[in-house]
Amino acid sequence: MSIGPKQALYTEFAAVARALGSQHRLEILEHLAQGERGVEALAERVGLSIANASQHLQQLRRAGLVASRRDGKFVLYRLADEAVLSVMAMLSGIAERNLAEVDRIRRSYFDERDNMEPVSREELLQRTRDDLVTVLDVRPIDEFAVGHVPGAINIPLGELEARLAELDPTHEIVAYCRGPWCVLSFEAVAALRIRGFRVRRLEDGLPEWRAAGLPVELS
């Protein structure tokens, strides 16, 4: 039996929804929001085999969520467009408002490490221009290199304790990482507060900062 145009459209929309229906694919999208990546790098970051990561990427590409290009012998993947970030934000927002388990996880893990109001993008931009804060990027160095908040210093979370001397204890710190639920910034805030630093988080991460049209520096 043939289907009408509306049903045909809904079939395609459902294909996009199915592609989003995997925690691994959502995490892959979070990593691709930082910049282009090959399948090997993505597999390592997400904790998958290369074959498994490749299968997830093919599903995301078929759904129009990621695009790719060839660089010599390698294939590099990226988000298809900034609208993918909006879709992920809407998913997160719906889950936060309506799922009790999301609220439990937020309170038991995230709020325990930082229950202060985060700094908005607009406030951080103004405070950096006035030289009122130290902006701390706690992502890995390769992600920092392809784009970061202007003037930010990069101390990956795993190096933070060994490099505390690089931070001015008299200057307020604003930490950020990959997005609003990236655990790296929450862990950094908790670790620095224990050591007496004045520190808050950015409300989200570098991808949202870039999508808002705010300035980005490259290393």
Layout of SSEs?
Elements: H1 5-20, H2 23-32, E1 37-38, H3 39-46, H4 50-62, E2 66-71, E3 74-79, H5 83-98, H6 100-113, H7 121-129, E4 133-137, H8 141-145, E5 153-154, E6 172-177, H9 183-194, E7 199-205, H10 206-211
Parallel strand pairs: 4-5, 4-6, 6-7
Antiparallel strand pairs: 1-3, 2-3
CATH superfamily of the largest domain: Rhodanese-like domain
| Spatial order of the strands forming the largest sheet | 5-4-6-7
- Radius of gyration of CA atoms, rounded to a whole number: 19 Å
Overall helicity:
40-55%
What would the CATH topology of the largest domain be?
Answer: Oxidized Rhodanese, domain 1
The CATH architecture assignment of the largest domain turns out to be: 3-Layer(aba) Sandwich
Tell me, briefly, the overall form: globular
Count of individual helical segments: 10
Would you list the SSEs in sequence order as H and E?
HHEHHEEHHHEHEEHEH
- What is the terminal-to-terminal distance? 57 Å
Structural class: alpha/beta
The CATH class name of the largest domain reads: Alpha Beta
Q: How much of the residues is beta strand, in percent?
A: 15-25%
Major beta-sheet overview: 4 strands, parallel
Low-confidence stretches: none
Q: How many DSSP E strands?
A: 7
Give average pLDDT, whole number.
Answer: 95
Q: How would you sum up this structure, described in words?
A:
The protein is of the alpha/beta class and 219 residues long. It folds into two domains: 5-84, Arc Repressor Mutant, subunit A; 107-211, Oxidized Rhodanese, domain 1 (3-Layer(aba) Sandwich), CATH 3.40.250.10. The protein has ten helices and seven strands. Strands 5-4-6-7 form a four-stranded parallel beta sheet, with helices on both faces. It has a three-stranded antiparallel beta sheet with strand order 1-3-2. Strand 6 (172-177), helix 9 (183-194) and strand 7 form a beta-alpha-beta unit. The longest helix is centred in the N-terminal third of the chain and has 16 residues, at 5-20. The termini are far apart.
